[in-house]
Amino acid sequence: MNTTVMDSVGEIEDEIQPRSYWRWTKQDFFPEESFQNWSTYQSALSQTFTRFKDRAASRSEDADEIEELRKQSENEMKRCLSWWDLTWFGFGSVIGAGIFVLTGQEAHEHAGPAIILSYVASGISAMLSVFCYTEFAVEIPVAGGSFAYIRVELGDFAAFITAGNIILGSIAGGAAVARAWTSYFTTLLNLHPNSLRIHTNLADGFNLLDPIAVAVLVITSIIAISSTRRTSYFNWIASAINMMVILFVIVAGFAHADSSNLTPFMPHGAKGIFVAAAIVYFAYGGFDNIATMAEETKNPSKDIPLGLLGSMSIITVIYCLMALSLSMMQKYTDIDPNAAYSVAFQSVGMKWAKYLVALGALKGMTTVLLVGAIGQARYATHIARVHMIPPWFALVHPKTGTPINATLLIRLASACIAFFSSLDVLASLLSVSSLLISMMMAVALLVRRYYVRGITPRTNLLKLTFFLLVIILSSIGTSAYWGLNPNGWLGYTITVPLWFLATLAISVLLPQERTPKVWGVPLVPWFPSLSIVINLFLMGSLGAQAFIRFGICTVVMLMYYILFGLHATYDMARQPKKVVSSKISEEDVEKARS
What we know:
single chain, mainly alpha, Amino acid/polyamine transporter I, 24 helices, 70% helix, transmembrane helix
């Protein structure tokens, strides 16, 4: 009895005296029962198959994601963002290395002047994904973004695949933008793009070491962890300057346009357009960061749709205009793949303009890194809340209201990759990861609309599962046939009707079980189904090397899941719900739901 009383007193003291943020004990990293000693770990490994079956079938609840898991961070994030902040965060997060670097790279190597069509194709795919993200972010306003949404609708294992790709994309994306920052910085100094990199005898693609990229990642991370509000102010200023540079690029580009540069328009045919579209999809990456800021948004149900849909609509138009202006200024064979816009202006006699473009590009890439540091860390924070990575990374600092540990995890890894890897190695890998997550988000949205536990009849669940499998497999078939026979048509007479009929069957034969409370994706199931086929088609347009790298990363992820993530999440799911030291109030929970 005395021991019980003492334990209770100890728990009360922990509540009265919150633990220090800076702590490093084993319990902070591995608190789960499976990792207490070698014996418990061996016991956990012996139950791997049973535990996998349990976790693969488990799904989270909206309330758990919104309320219970936030307690794992011990301190709340500060609600300080409006729709205006989110709109500018959208500009800052998306417009950067993609448009300034990948446009020239892909126009030169794959699409030619038809790069504008590549941006249209990837833009349609991105906007369909934005619709899905917006509905989820309004319904489940948490820092976990797509990870949380997929965990609720598709289950724990699907969420782990998402988490692995989010972390992979965050690390590779940050590294890619930091490498591009160095290229434009050297252009601003009137030097060769690789002149400030250290040349080594390592394998091609990994032989140019980039210490400047590492420094930029460190500096932007320090700003991001200091304060979300302060970061928003900085982003406003930098993004406004960048938008003025973009306006200059578009106007000046068309002023020096030569329509003869658009011939031949499709030098590598339709295949070149879609190969480029799959790569430049990376240029639209970052919009999902807006969804991760839901916990810091004053009114998620109003602010997120305005900020996310508004910024992405404008960005899509801007990208198409910028791609067209570049293609009309300079012949695609003469475009510099490393600093396309700067060199293009130099070629039309505006040598001074290349410095303005380089400065604007640097500011754009700086905001991408800055906003990325915020969004990527919030992904990692929520992933840590469910113990898929050590819960130490879920902690929010009591003074700054930011997840410092999670920021360090992503950015230190990005810095290591950026030091060694070139942009083309990173971009294709990132595109596979981004497209896969977007496809899974569309599937999750269809599941959310047509299946509710305890309400949907089993026969309807089986029908939905079957129709979704037909949509996915027919989309894979379309993509595979395109890759094997770009000039053929017979295969499409099978795959396209199958996709259409399966989508039509969902629309006609299955009732929608859930209606969005505030904002919902229009034309369900057609828009989500179209998102699935476009994302898979673009994935199939990528080269084999990208999938080999992605496959290697996936094997590493699965090994990690079997050895650690599975057992940590299994123990986490079975521990009794308890109140931990937290500053999250009931009023905040109600705000999150509003």
